């Protein structure tokens, strides 16, 4: 592993509990997607993958990040300590019902999909100024992912058209935001089929029980402190998280 990849991975890992990083010197930044993904893998450090983040194609590109088991919070649990400037997104998530085989066909990928549920993604960049971070460095930082939560109840993924799922988010039962439309099931499926091939090529294939979060449909928004946060998806279910009273 090149020294600059190892050094960036160590710096990102340290910034989970220590001071945020300033902008990196050019020689320390990943030079292409392959290097950014190599940093993601190094940050995992052998920890089990509990999920992935991937969103429908945008400007001809799909990007992703594996999410370590330590980033998965239980439905209704509390946000982790040490968050600096967190933001919250409401997403739809797919829970894998079975392993995706090596060199899977699109039909095999779809056969592995189980429930569709509502999810939260918590963003908290390891950099002091995310606007000053090059895109590939942000990708190496798992696109600012800090944690995620999936609803414990869902519905079979192919019984719902994702584009029409209405979503709402509440803080202590006060409505904060709503959305009535988003990417379609076909757009999400395209990204997941791409992800299955990508993950297999990285040696971390998609496995039963993993949760795939599929991009923001509400947010990102500041996280109100000291609240019971609840998001609902019409006909799908709910997801919950408790926010700390102060950071």
From TrEMBL:
Coiled-coil residue spans: none
The name this protein goes by in its record: 2-keto-4-pentenoate hydratase
Source organism (scientific name): Pseudotabrizicola sediminis
Lineage: Bacteria, Pseudomonadati, Pseudomonadota, Alphaproteobacteria, Rhodobacterales
